[in-house]
């Protein structure tokens, strides 16, 4: 297949060369002979029934400090592309949601990965609530009395914004911490959404596991161990990646959610597991490919493109 691929992402010049998953997806696409077109979410437009993007043809190289070349700016009709990768980082705000509405006009004739309708319906901390028996004790609320009652029951809690990402705004409150009221005031001023409160899981000290699922099946995992004195395990705030496999419980979690992910057209998904609990299902711009590749000697980006090609073949036969 010689595919035309558009990548809706953050600026290519600012990526993490050693960690960015979109970068290696692009490299694999070029290795397969696909052509790449790079644009930013803010340069996406809808006009008279057409979905347009102002961007540039892109070439990628695995050369630090010289990893990309961009062509001249041009306006393209995304209906003429074979695949659009929706890979800009969250937050999952109204800008993100608007992009899913616009891209919905061309999907699935142009295959958008992940399915924009499913992405819109699957905010990462809310999506988990649709699967029984996998979450830690959780409260989603703006009700101060409900939050206080939850804390009184579970003592040690995690407080975080419902639509945050990358560990931003995540707080660990021990039973004697007096900052709950101030934190809720701060969250209320920053956003109108409820907050999410969960029982603190001490197992996080041993790591927060990122598991990659491709077309609904687990393909690899990396453990992220928080730095000393840090409650968050995200790698960009100092979490240390470690090689790791899947436990029986994690296999069960993947089996519980995998068929649903596949049915919804969520080809590339990253889930977060602490101890025996699923805490997030990441469908917007999952990461972890490069770390898993290095630890396991695999090439997950090739498996993702195999799944995309299979989806295109199924579509052509339908």
Automatic annotation (TrEMBL):
Source organism of this protein record: Ferrovibrio terrae
UniProt entry keywords in alphabetical sequence: ATP-binding, Glutathione biosynthesis, Ligase, Magnesium, Manganese, Metal-binding, Nucleotide-binding
GO molecular function, one term: metal ion binding
NCBIfam families according to UniProt: glut_syn (TIGR01380), PRK05246.1 (NF003573)
Superkingdom to which the source organism belongs: Bacteria
Catalytic reactions of this protein: gamma-L-glutamyl-L-cysteine + glycine + ATP = glutathione + ADP + phosphate + H(+)
Similarity field: Belongs to the prokaryotic GSH synthase family.
Cofactor: Mg(2+); Mn(2+)
UniProt-recorded name of the protein: Glutathione synthetase
């Amino acid at each position: 297949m010689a595919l035309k691929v558009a990548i809706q992402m953050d600026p290519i010049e600012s990526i993490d060369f050693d960690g960015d998953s979109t970068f290696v997806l692009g490299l694999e696409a070029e290795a397969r002979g696909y052509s790449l077109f790079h644009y930013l979410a803010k340069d996406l437009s809808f006009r008279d029934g057409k979905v347009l993007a102002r961007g540039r043809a892109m070439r990628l190289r695995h050369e630090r400090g010289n990893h990309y070349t961009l062509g001249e700016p041009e306006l393209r009709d995304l209906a003429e592309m074979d695949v659009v990768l929706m890979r800009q980082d969250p937050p999952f705000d109204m800008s993100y949601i608007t992009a899913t509405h616009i891209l919905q006009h061309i999907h699935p004739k142009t295959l958008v990965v992940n399915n924009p309708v499913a992405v819109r319906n699957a905010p990462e901390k809310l999506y988990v609530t649709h699967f029984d028996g996998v979450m830690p004790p959780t409260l989603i609320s703006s009700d101060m009395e409900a939050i206080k009652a939850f804390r009184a029951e579970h003592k040690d809690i995690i407080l975080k914004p419902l639509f945050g990402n990358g560990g931003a705004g995540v707080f660990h409150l021990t039973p004697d911490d007096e900052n709950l009221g101030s934190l809720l005031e701060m969250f209320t001023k920053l956003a109108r959404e409820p907050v999410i409160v969960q029982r603190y899981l001490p197992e996080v000290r041993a790591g927060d596991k990122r598991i990659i699922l491709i077309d609904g099946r687990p393909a690899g995992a990396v453990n992220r161990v928080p730095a000393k004195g840090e409650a968050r395990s995200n790698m960009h705030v100092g979490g240390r990646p470690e090689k790791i496999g899947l436990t029986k419980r994690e296999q069960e979690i993947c089996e519980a959610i995998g068929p649903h992910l596949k049915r919804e057209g969520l080809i590339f998904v990253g889930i977060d597991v602490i101890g025996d609990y699923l805490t997030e299902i990441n469908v917007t711009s999952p990461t972890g490919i490069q770390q898993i590749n290095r630890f396991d000697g695999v090439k997950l980006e090739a498996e993702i493109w195999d799944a995309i090609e299979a989806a295109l073949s199924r579509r052509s036969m339908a």
